[in-house]
Amino acid sequence: MPKLAIAAVLLALVALASATTYAGFLLVSTVALYLNVSRFVAGLLLGILFARLPWVRDGKLRAVGLLPGKARLPVMASLLTFCLLHFLYRGDMVPVLFLGFAVSFLLGYRRLRQLLLARAVSSFFQPAPGPARPQDDKSVIDVEFREKKD
């Protein structure tokens, strides 16, 4: 069974890589079309826009680029959405499906990573034996009774 699971995970990763690669090709092609340049130049422009270079300042390693860290995801999502709308206007459904998948994966990646990491960690580290951890159920009232001695 582990070999089948590994094969399924590898197949899913190959499908994800190929879908996002095709979405990137569509994005570069659309940007090249609107800027009236070759795909090579459009790819270079997008590469310069999203590049992150290592920089050492005050003894700390940092990454610097044209876009601040907080702006990278919205800019990338808006470019993919613009490309999706372009192909939707043209009536090409196959590129729309790939771009829609890429946008949804881009927006859901952080949550998906947290869920998978939490599940993987919980499978390796079982809770210690002993009293069960208290639940955070607000509808249950936990009361401790003590008897008074006369």
Describe it for me?
Helices cover 67% and strands 7% of the residues. The chain is mainly α. Helix 1 crosses helix 2 and helix 3 (69-90) runs antiparallel to helix 4. A hairpin with a 2-residue loop joins strand 1 (53-57) and strand 2 (60-64). It has helices spanning 2-35, 39-50, 69-90, 93-124, and strands at residues 53-57, 60-64.
Task: List strands and helices in order, with pairings.
Blueprint: H1 2-35, H2 39-50, E1 53-57, E2 60-64, H3 69-90, H4 93-124
Antiparallel strand pairs: 1-2
In sequence order, what are the helices and strands, one letter per element? HHEEHH
Low-confidence stretches: none
> Which geometry do the CA atoms define?
elongated
Going across the biggest sheet, name each strand in turn.
Answer: 1-2
- Output the structural class: mainly alpha
Total E-strand runs: 2
Measured as a percent range, the helix fraction is: 55-70%
Largest sheet: 2 strands, antiparallel
- Note the gap between the termini: 65 Å
Proportion of residues in β-strands: 5-15%
Q: How would you concisely characterize the structure shown here?
A:
The chain has 150 residues and is mainly alpha-helical. The chain has helices at residues 2-35, 39-50, 69-90, 93-124; strands at 53-57, 60-64. The chain has one domain (6-123).
